[in-house]
Amino acid sequence: MEGDVVRGQFLTEVGGKKVYVTLAGHLGAKDGYATFQPTEFKVGDLSIPVSLVNDALQKKLLEQRDRLKLPEFVSDVRVENGELIVKQK
Q: Does 82 score more than 90 pLDDT?
């Protein structure tokens, strides 16, 4: 985490070759669920415009919606100054 952005890097296989996928964006909450708005997407060193992957990413997040449910006592989550902030109700 840096600033207000969370960043993750994952190893996956594309076309039989292992590559790193880097994803960065803003963490938030809406209607009791964690949300993620991407700001960066890379495959290896190749930057991919977020507009090309956002719809597919949001669809994947929707498929995992049950895993993104926040505990009842949490009203908001975000990254601020490189730290995870969890706001209680």
A: yes
